[in-house]
Every structure is written in C-alpha cells, then in structure tokens.
Amino acid sequence: MGKNRQSFKFKGKLKQLSLISLYLGIILALVDVFVYLCDYKAGLILTGYILVYFAIYIFLINYNKSIIMKELVNFGTHFSQVQKVMLKELEIPYALLDNDGHILWMNELFEQITDKSAQFDKSITSVFPSITKDKLPSSENYVETELEYDNNSYQLKMRRLSIKELVKSSNLISSNGSEDNLIAFYLFDITAVKLALKEIDDQSLAVGMVYLDNYDEALESVEEVRRSLLVALIDRKINMYISSLDGICKKLEKDKYMIVLRKKAMETLEENKFDILDEVKTVNIGNEMSVTISIGVGLDGLSYAQNYEFARNAIDLALGRGGDQAVVKTPENIIYFGGKSQQVEKNTRVKARVKAQALQEIISTKDKVLVMGHRLPDVDSFGAAVGIYRIAKSLDKKAHIVVDGVSTAIKPMVDLFMSKDDYDEDMLVSNSTAIEMADSNTVLVVVDVNRPSITECPELLRLCKSIVVLDHHRQGTEYIENATLSYIEAYASSACEMVSEILQYIDDGVHITSEEADCMYSGIMIDTNNFMTKTGVRTFEAAAFLRRNGADVTRVRKLFRENANEYKAKADAVSQAEIYKNSFAISTCTSEDLDSPTVVGAQAANELLNIKGIKASFIFTDYQNQIFISARSIDEINVQVIMEKMGGGGHLSIAGCQLEGVSIEEAIGELKKTLDTMIENEEIKI
Questions:
Q1: CB burial class (10 A; 0-12, 13-18, 19+) of residue 523?
Q2: Nearest C-alpha neighbor of 283 from the set 342, 220, 229, 340
Q3: Which residue, among 567, 592, 551, 593, has the nearest Cα to 413 in the 3D structure?
C-alpha cells in the first residue's frame, strides 16, 4: 500500500488545488527575505514559521493522499451505482445489442414493454419481426425508423457504439480483429402524436365533383310532366347521402354538383365502394333509362385549390372512362371505383362537330401533320390514321403516317395504298424519319391510344408542341399530358367510327376514296367483331357514311381472310381452354409460324364467348419477350378493371395488358389470383 501511496499522484484540478498551498509558501519565503532587510530578528521568527508551515504541508500531503484516493474510489463507486440505477430506471425503453442483433442488456421499461426478462438473450427479430439483421445500422451508422408493437407506435433509433478501449483494457475478453461495437436500441412512444396527427388529417378537406352522365337521355325517356320529379328525386338522393357523411353538397348546374367532405368521410365512401353510384340508379319513376353518375374527388393536396384541381382532373378521368364510376385522385396515386355499366351512347353529334372544327383549325395553322397509333398497329389504328391523313391532305398539308413496321394485321390495307399512284411515297414513315421531321411547326395526331408508353413513337410526344388525341379507350392513370385537343369517347365502338364522324364536319365533308373507306370500314368491323359488340346507332351511321363513299363489304371480307396456320392456332386456343370457376375461359395461343399472334389471340378470345356460361375469356400469347393478354366479355363482367389491376386497360368488354419478365404459367397464376381477390372483395360477381 505504501508503494501504491507513493506512486499515487494528483493531476488536473486536484493537482492545481494541492499546489496552491505550495505556491503560497514560496511567496511567504520571498516576503521573509524582505523582512530580513528590515528587521533581522523578525526575519528569523518568520523563517521558523515557514519551516513549520512546509513541514505541516508535506505531512498533510503524504497523509491525505490515501484518504483522498479512498474517498474518490468510494464516490466513484456510489456515482456509478447511481448511474446504473438511473439507466435501469430510464423512462425511455433502451437496450444494448451485439453485432448480430442479440440482446445483451435491457432496462426495466424495455422489459415491461416487451414482457421479457433481463435474462432474455435472443435476437431482437424475435421481439420485433420487422427489425431483421439487414435493418441494423452499419459501422458507425445511425438508423431511425418507425415500428408498430402491441397496438402502439414507436420511433426507433439505433446507433453503433465503439467499445474498442473497453476491450483493450479488459482481462476477461479480447478482440478477434472484427469491429468492436455494440448497438444502442432506443424506443420513443409516438402513439399519442400519431393519433393527434391522424385526427388533424381526418379533419382535412376533400373536394368532389358529381356529374350526371346521361341527364338529357334519362329525361327524354320519361313523361314531360314527371321530369321535374325525377330531377328532384335525384337531387334528394345525392344530398341526403352527402349529408349522412357530414358533408356539403351544392348544385352548380342542372347536372353538376360540388361536394365538400372531411377526409375521414372518404374512408366510409371507400369502404362502401361508393355505393351512391348504385343508389342513384334505383331512382325510377317510369324512366326507361337508369340515371348514372360520375364522381371525382381530390384530397391530400397542399392547398384547398390543389384539392379542387385534383377533383376536376378526377371527374374528367371518370367521364373519359365512360362514366358510372368514382375516381379519387391524390398526389401519389389514382383510385377507381365502379365502372360496371355499359357506356351510354350520346345521340347528339354536337361534340363531334366541335372537335372536328377545332382539329381543322389546329391543322390549318401547321405545315406538317404526323399521325401515329399504338405499337403493333391494328386495322382500327391504321384506318383512323388514314382518315386523319385524308383530312390533312384536303387542307393542303403535308401528312405522314408513322408506322415503324408493317405487320400482317395491316399489310392488306397498306398494300391498297402502296399500289396506287395517288398517294405519296412517303405516306408511311418510320420512327426515325418521323423524329427528323418533327419540329415546332408540326402537329402530331395520336389515334386509337391515349397511353404515351404504348404509342408507336413516344419520342414524338416530346418533340411536337401541338398534340391531338383521338381515342375510344377508357383513360387510365397514364395519359398524354398537355394535349392541345383531346377527344376521348369511351362509348364509341372504334377510332374509325370517331374519325368517320369528324370527316363529315371538315369543310362540309371530305371526299374519301374507296380504299380509304374500305380501310376505315375494316377498323369498325374488326373492333366490333362484325358489328356484334359495342355497336350503337352512331356506329351504323358511320358505317353507312363509309358505304356511301365506296366501302365494299365483300372486298373487305376478302382482305381479312385467315391463312391455315392462323385458323389452326385459333382453333387450338379454343379447344385447349380451361374453364375457371365455371365462368372464365383461359387459354394460350401459340406464336409459332404466325405473323400477328396477338390478333389471332384476340379472335380466339371472341370465339370463347360463344360457349354457354362463359362470362369472360382470357387468351395468353408469348410474343416478342412479352406476355400479351387479350380479355373479352359480353356484358356481365368488366374485363377493363381486371386488366387495370394487372397493368393494362381497355373497355368494359374488350381489354388487354402486356406483362414482362414472367412466363405464361406465372401470368395465368397472376390472373387467377387477381380474379380470386376481386371475387372475394365483391368487385366482380359470378
């Protein structure tokens, strides 16, 4: 102990404190020298005092070293115990983990929350399954995340703590060369904060627009004296429904309403799948046609104005998809509800006339016109492009149809024009040529498609400032933005039908050749499956217009006769069909020895609908490293919503999608899983 006492030295503040007495003694010695000069006897007395002072100083220093060391050790020990108790009883759940995530130590609150004992030494994943080893912080890294546990929400913070110095000085453990770290694991209860934030969020504003889809048509189907009663009943139905959700409904026009709701009410609407869509249809006072409504709702915007803009976009999307549905738009996504009814054909052609005049004005202000459809163009796409080509030529504008590769589906049509001297050699141009032609004085007309990703040449959408979209497919989440003119009518049977109507309003009608009439008539015929699906009065009026301009039914039929391989492939697809849940026909179509297997697949899907009891058919075709799905129905199943859930789209009775990176077997499995989920959620009924 004596040796230890001698080797024990003060340092830092304690050393400075102990040296103060020494410094005072030295000062006193200097004063003694001065006293000697003044009085020798007084100097001797002071010298004696100084010697006694230094003797006592040396004695106290040596004597108190051991006492001070003992007191410091005692204090340190007690202070360490206080720290340990404070850490153990810390009001924040806290644990220490090793590099692999095993629990080494936890405080009392952590034990209470997890209901584990202090001896629990298993992986943290066994307590919190979401915290796997890959979620742990890397070297000297800091991780912050949220987790749910036992109906509470926690903010989790993890950080690595280096223990290299502790390992070096330890007599019990040694380092094996790996990183010497512990992981500090903190939990902060944020349940109350999240509940408060959710309460605030639930009270935020949601803006909606409600439009009556077929207001005029429904009124015409009821006696004039009862029309006001029908309108009053519809108003009452909508107002009562919105009032039950603690919302406000204001009628803007005869067939338009604006609604204001709390966001919490939207949860009820979504849970009920917007059953107001079906409730309005029950209003009947003798009207032959049920009234349908479209709803567009915007929420989660940065401002009320942005929510209103979202609502306007949503209602446009709902109407563009055929009506009788609700669309909810947020900054992140778009959700669809309803859309189970067949689209109602409008009797008036006012819209077609207005769009035709707008198209004429746009083309008249440009020097060149580029027309393109979708990839792997079909007869409807090419026929509509030919109609726009004829409009541009009648306005003395240079026009070109963008076709990057002539498939067998349109080859008979293309040959009609290539063999005629009346048409320019550059009537058809490739993608690369079209890109070179595109400039600020070019108008791009997109037909039979409204999704930019599947257009013939998406690059043209960026290069051309003036864009016109003419399509009969329902709009989806992806659409062509900033179009100068957009004419999308989901009730139309085909793009060729729409273009045929437009032709009649350009300069009091455009004269078209028999080849062009044949081409457009073919588009209508193919898309309506020989006038058996999606045909209305205006479909036959368009066909009649084309017949008057030289379309020949016999000539068209000869153009589209199938070769033996195509006929056999279609027959094989039909014969090998699997009947799923007694309602869905699922089969595959080979692509071997076929120039246009997707067309054959679509034809096979149509054939399967002739089987009694089949409500929808799906044909899978492996072509160009993609799986093409052709979906068809008559009127009982909405195949569009099925295909949308798989990334595609289309119409209520005609739809499709393309899958990449999967086999046909996997694609069929995905379809069955989608059907099962939709049946379970009552989105489709069988």
A1: buried
A2: 229
A3: 551
Q: Which of 648, 615, 645, 651 lies closest to 633, judged by CA?
A: 615
Residue 80: is its pLDDT beyond 70? no
Q: 159 phi and psi, to 5 degrees?
A: -150, 150
Q: Which residue has the tokens 């003060």?
A: 10
Determine the Cα–Cα distance for residues 61 and 511; give it in Å rounded to an integer.
Answer: 120
Question: Residue 628 in 3-state DSSP?
Answer: strand
Mean pLDDT of 114-127: 83
Residue 29 is encoded by which pair of tokens? 């010695």
Give me the residues paired with residue 630 across strands. Answer: 619, 656
Instruction: Please provide the distance, in angstroms rounded to a whole number, between the alpha carbons at the two ends of the chain.
Output: 94
Cα 200 from chain centroid? Answer: 24
Angle between the N-to-C axes of helices 495-503 and 350-364, in degrees from 0 to 180, rounded to the nearest 10:
80
Helix (H) or strand (E) holding 471: strand 466-471
- For 596, left (φ over 0), alpha (ψ -120 to 50), or beta? beta
Question: Is the model's pLDDT at 287 over the cut of 60?
Answer: yes
Q: Map residue 582 onto helix, strand or coil.
A: coil
Q: Return d(Cα 53, Cα 55) in angstroms, integer.
A: 5
Confidence category of residue 168, pLDDT binned at 50, 70, 90: low
Buried b vs exposed e over 529-559: b needs ≥16 C-beta within 10 Å?
beeebbbbebbbebbebbeebebeeeebeeb
Question: Would you say 545 and 512 are in contact if contact means Cβ atoms under 8 Å apart?
Answer: no
Helix/strand/coil (H/E/C) assignment for every residue in 375-412:
CCCCHHHHHHHHHHHHHHHHCCCEEEEECCCCCCCCHH
pTM for this entry: 0.59
Q: So what's the pLDDT on residue 458?
A: 92
Distance CA 518, CA 504 (A): 16
Structure tokens at 518: 């044949």
CA 676 – CA 186 distance, rounded (Å): 43
The first and second tokens of residue 534, run together, are: 């999606």
The length of the chain in residues reads 686
**Strand pairing partners for 621?**
589, 628
Strand partners, 664: none
CA 145 to CA 75: how far, in whole Å? 39
Sheet holding 142-149, edge to edge: 103-106, 94-97, 181-189, 152-162, 142-149
Q: Per mean pLDDT, which range of 238-252, 327-341, 441-455, 604-618 is the poorest?
A: 327-341
The whole-angstrom separation of Cα 257 and Cα 276 is 14
Which tokens in the block code for residue 683?
Answer: 């989105």
Q: Which of 27-36, 74-83, 172-181 has the lowest mean pLDDT?
A: 172-181
210 and 292 in contact (C-beta within 8 Å)? no
For the chain, what percent of residues have pLDDT higher than 90?
35
Residue 367, helix vs strand vs coil: coil
- Residue ranges of alpha helices (H) inside 115-257 are 164-169, 191-202, 215-220, 227-244
Cα 578 from Cα 588, distance rounded (Å): 10
| Statement: residue 551 has pLDDT above 50 | yes
Angle at 538 between CA 536 and CA 541, to 5 degrees: 120
The predicted structure's pLDDT at residue 566:
86
Residue 195 has pLDDT above 90, yes or no: no
Q: What is the pLDDT of residues 644-665, one digit of tens each?
A: 889 888 777 888 999 988 999 9
